[in-house]
Amino acid sequence: AATSLNLVNLGFGSAAVDPGRRSRDELEALARDAGRDLEGAPAEVIAKWATDTFGDRFCVTSSMADAVVAHLFSRVAPGVDVVFLDTGLHFPETLKVRDIVAATMDVNVRSIRPRQTVGQQDGELGPRLFARSPDECCFLRKVEPLERALSEYDSWATGLRRDESPTRANTPVVAFDPKKGKVKVNPIAAWTQADVDRYISRWNVPVNELFKMGYGSIGCWPCTRRTKAGEDPRAGRWAMFEKTECGLHV
Ligand code: SF4
């Protein structure tokens, strides 16, 4: 529980925390301790630990399916950077959520674009790369842009939840990502869909209108389809391929 946390060691109540550059070993140790001590803590406590610990070397990432995590951090750390990967292939409804977040929340929304527009990519690699090689398309339009954006930060937050899919069942609240060399924070990892719905209702958080149209999980329009009642919400993602993740969270 939050009350049993050693908040001083975690950075609370101490002026000694330096959010400046840290070594890989320091980041790894911070993540290990926090992952252990913050398990079971409220999302707000996890979010506050992250922003206090990393300062301006921290950002939130959001797919703008909903704006729960962006909102959570806007309450805990007003002005926090929120990174949105603008693939050029989003539904208009998703861009609408991004624009509402930018206009109504105390956060700094940063839309990060791929190196090439969709047209430039089509010209070089041929049209509809998503239908021929979705891994390559996701790398060019999501993975590389995220890595470029994260180069400015030591830590980032996501809205991953354990109940979203079997591949996410063991998501820790804080962990070191050895590939990126950064600390990944998942403050709502332990939340259920009911917890998310309660938060949205309590704070009147913007939600992507596609959820009301039968979409269970929302990504780029070419790789997202509606889901049927009772179907795994993520079954609508890359439904034509044996692919369940875009590569951002592996
Ligand atoms: Fe390309 Fe689909 Fe990945 Fe979007 S989700 S980057 S369209 S393969």
From TrEMBL:
Binds 1 [4Fe-4S] cluster per subunit. CDD domains: PAPS_reductase. Its cofactor is [4Fe-4S] cluster. It is found in: Cytoplasm. Pathway: Sulfur metabolism; hydrogen sulfide biosynthesis; sulfite from sulfate. It comes from the Bacteria. One of its GO terms (molecular function) is phosphoadenylyl-sulfate reductase (thioredoxin) activity. Its EC number is 1.8.4.10. Keywords: Cytoplasm, Iron, Iron-sulfur, Metal-binding, Oxidoreductase. Residues 63-225 form the Phosphoadenosine phosphosulphate reductase domain. Its main location: cytoplasm. The active site is at C246. Coiled coil: none annotated. Catalyzes the formation of sulfite from adenosine 5'-phosphosulfate (APS) using thioredoxin as an electron donor. This is Adenosine 5'-phosphosulfate reductase. The gene is cysH.
